[in-house]
Amino acid sequence: MAFTDHSDPHPSSRPASPDSTSGESEASRGVDRRAFLKRTALSSAALSMGLWGGDGATAAASVRPRADVQGEARNIIFLVVDGMSQGTLTMTDQLLQRHHDRTSHWVDLYREQAYDAKAFMDMTPLNSLVTGSAAAASSWGCGHRINNTMLNMDPDENPYRTICQIVRDAGKATGLVSTARITHATPAGFGINMPQRWMEDDIAAQYLEREYDLLMGGGARHFTAEGRDDNQDLTTAFADAGYRVLRSRSDLGEVASAEKALGLFFDSHLPYEIDRRRIDRLQRTVPSLAEMTEAALGRLNQHEEGFLLHVEGGRVDHGAHSNDTAGLLYDQVAFDETIATVLNFVADRDDTLLVVTTDHGNANPGLNAIGDRYEDSPAMFDRIADFRRSNEWIFRELDEDSAVDEIQERVAFACNLDISTGQASTLKQAMQGDFEAVYQPRSSPSAVLSAIQANYTAVNWTGSMHTSDYVPLVAMGPGSDTIGSFVRNTELFDLMVDTAGVRAHAEG
Ligand SMILES: [Zn+2]
């Protein structure tokens, strides 16, 4: 069996004594290390004999008992940036250092060792080595590995209870915030059961039934009569159910006094941060992720029994899918600012479990070595600081009939790059569907534009889809000291349930 579901116990990897979570002696660590080295030697011998196989995907997960953290957390804040590869985190820190006089708050947690736990996490879903956002969020949301594109259901469409339902039934407040449509896979993975993540009209309706306290992000089209396939006006239904419905950045002030709130700040996903910051109309009407998060914390923290808040930087994933370097990096910056907002909230408290992570890698961008002794790379990378728009903005006004010089002008305005006539012609070919790259996924217009840009920025990509990378995780607050250094995705569900002391509500 290649993948073991969470419900199968691993007695051998769950030490019976809670003592093993703390106060390890030097001597016992020495024994552990020797045992580890021995096992490594044995397994490499087995590998050379072709005997490797079985449960390798999960056997290494370090599950530890959670009984000692029972009910220690009043609040849980779960921050996810969607689709962040290692290169995204690295380049964002480098961009901030070179052009914004600061370092990444996320990377600073490492620099300052300001965490209670740091780990790699294995995000494997039930049916593949590469996860989608729905299965990834569901692994945290219900504690089970499930098939890609489903939301908190087993392959036969039997629902699992979600963390939002569990926490809600225990009397805590629940909030979901995203820069993607709020009906998108990641927020839905914390509180929705659906056979297909794409059933977003139904997801919006299920949110109404489940009465979560706060929903903020994009995706108005799945709530309005004009946008929904059934032409039902869900915003009125939400208002009738006691929700304050917010449609613009200036409405955010109302969240604090609202009993419940539904914030829908764009028809689909919120615009990329680089466009939001530079286009006046968007700046006025669309809040940043940090602003939504601050408003959410202000409201949820009034709740006597505490809260669960999930926040997603949703469009880093989209920037990666479309190889949109500036779209990607500035949305990562916006997520990083949100980390600062939340660190500010938890700074003086010891009752809040904070998790910061991503759900999978995506297209694995990186700054490549260029030039003699690689000395061209920094100046090439610096060109990204002169980008004024996302690639999404470039394509919005272009189509297969666009003239070559029109393509050049639009790229020049958005990126401050004078691409050649030959490069613009190739992009036109790609838009006409007449370009074929040796690696087929690199044939799309967005991949071709990014490959052209790579000649100027030295940032390039492996493809345009998710990757199987183990993801970084940092955590702090009650319960986080029980997180091992290699974590199975489903373990975070148990950590949340036990640390919040809501296990009694987990079985329905
Ligand atoms: Zn994705």
UniProtKB/TrEMBL annotation:
SUPFAM superfamilies: Alkaline phosphatase-like (SSF53649). Binds 2 Zn(2+) ions. Binds 1 Mg(2+) ion. Mg(2+) binds at residues 82, 184, 186, 312. Its cofactor is Zn(2+); Mg(2+). The active site is at residue 133. Residues 14-25 have a biased composition (Polar residues). Transmembrane segments: none annotated. Keywords: Magnesium, Metal-binding, Phosphoprotein, Zinc. One of its GO terms (molecular function) is metal ion binding. Residues 1-11 have a biased composition (Basic and acidic residues). SMART domains: alkPPc. Zn(2+) binds at residues 82, 317, 321, 359-360, 466. InterPro entries: Alkaline_phosphatase, Alkaline_phosphatase_core_sf, TAT_signal. Residues 1-32 are annotated as: Disordered. Belongs to the alkaline phosphatase family. This is Alkaline phosphatase. The lineage of its organism: Bacteria, Pseudomonadati, Rhodothermota, Rhodothermia, Rhodothermales.
